[in-house]
């Protein structure tokens, strides 16, 4: 019997460093299980972008620091994935709009799916479970002296068939959410709550 | 030696004798003619007459080959109707009227007439539309048209066919005139789109069922349970209401506030679709189509095959409730079943995680998934408005949805007789020749022959 529980999937692509945030999945899974009734698999999955297995994970996470160049098979699968209702969440691990990941990843996404647009801070994404009045929550890494040292007010997105198919972040959630899950208890406010919003939005939009 | 006068007298006598012979023979012949005419008159009067009948034919277009006024002037008591195709409604009405007036109708056909039946009904797709169903034993080229013109054409095979067409302008007509004719019309108004409430736990299934229905144009309210204290709702109402909702789709994990209200909702005329494990809910036991069995895994990779639902997990319906009807079977197990509950209807779908079909299926999978869900919902949607059936113009006035069935109902089925019909035609010709020997002509012939015979006898000096 198929395991139809929600499984957090990390996209594996042939260029760059797709596995730069190995602890992120565990923290998002922990938050989803902690706050919701979602039947969630205890461990995430790693899915090659060019594989048909992508279609079994309608929400997928992609990150990296290095330049991104999709293969033809990856481009074709990404287009199919988004057209059928998949949602790809892409986070720039460099949090640098002048960085190589941002430049190459947005170029690839634009080429395959169309231009990125700012997502309004009133978007249902910010109210799908927890409420984030000001839009995407700021990360402690945005002003850490690395990257562009900017607070990014908006996430960006690409719509396909009237639905959000790609969410692109320059906020470096990859660093913010990539810590040992045991350390979450030391946080006064759980910084992975926006991850719950992402998952709930993907499951209910 | 004989004198000249004697020679002349002998010659005169011989001449008179010769004339007498001729007159005698002529008189005899007239006498015999008179007797023959009397015999014929007696035969005509006392022997049984060949039945008088009129033969007409119904052509391939379902219309009689003689004008109606001419047929109405026929004096014969018997009308033999040969049919190449079932008569249209107008012809059938005429024949019924003739039978009602006391004439004996004899129906025959050179071969078994091909049955065809057409049904047109409003389909409750959000985008509107009609569903055309055709049943036929023989092949037929079918043309679907509406007030705006030809909509589609297709060939009906021997197993019958079902097809759909989109929204129509005015009445829809289906014709198979090339072989046999049938037509059904539906005055299609703008259908009131049924609002759907989707209730379930948070899952990819609920997310993609909602997406499929919305993409197909259904207005959807949703009530999705995220946690014991949080339910995400979409639309104005998160509980079933007959004033707002026509259908409720119950997915696994549906909130009890919804499931508890469903028995009353369906008895009041609503439609309910119970999906997968949701059938195990005790609150739905009274309205489900059957008890669910243990979940059976789908065949890996089958979602990209010609039978994509074989790739889905199945919660089979193992014990059908009374009055339930099986709609779909997979590998010998009931996958979908329906039943009526009060004024409403319930469809129980055993398939679980149909979203995999949409996401991982072949190129047509998203469309097929949408259509399949629409067809499931169409099966339970309450008909708020009556479906108006009727012909819209004179041309289609006379066409039937099932011409052969209408013929059987109104007049009976024709007998198939090929050789017999030829024999009947032969007898018909004989009777027609005898009709030439009219009684009046026979009487006249008798009188004339007898008068002539009497005159000749007088002339010969016998009378």
> What count of structural domains of chain A?
1
Amino- and carboxy-terminal Cα gap of chain A = 27 Å
Number of helices of chain A: 5
How is the largest sheet of chain A built, in terms of strand order?
2-1-3-4-7-6-5
Overall 3D shape of chain A = globular
Strand order of the largest sheet of chain B: 13-12-11-14-15-21-20-19
What's the layout of helices and strands?
The complex is a heterodimer of chains A (205) and B (463).
Chain A: E1 9-12, H1 24-35, E2 45-48, E3 59-64, H2 72-83, E4 87-92, H3 100-113, E5 117-118, E6 156-160, E7 163-169, H4 173-176, H5 193-204
Parallel strand pairs in A: 1-2, 1-3, 3-4, 4-7
Antiparallel strand pairs in A: 5-6, 6-7
Chain B: H1 4-46, E1 53-58, H2 68-72, E2 78-83, H3 89-100, E3 104-109, E4 116-122, E5 130-136, E6 140-146, E7 149-156, E8 161-165, E9 172-175, E10 186-187, E11 196-201, H4 204-215, E12 220-227, E13 230-234, E14 247-250, H5 256-259, H6 262-267, E15 271-275, E16 290-292, E17 313-314, E18 317-320, E19 325-330, E20 333-341, E21 344-349, E22 351-352, H7 355-360, H8 365-378, E23 388-389, H9 394-397, H10 403-410, E24 415-416, H11 419-434, H12 439-460
Parallel strand pairs in B: 1-2, 2-3, 3-24, 11-12, 11-14, 14-15, 15-21
Antiparallel strand pairs in B: 4-5, 5-8, 6-7, 6-9, 10-23, 12-13, 16-18, 17-22, 19-20, 20-21
Helix pairs in contact in B: 1-12, 3-10, 4-8
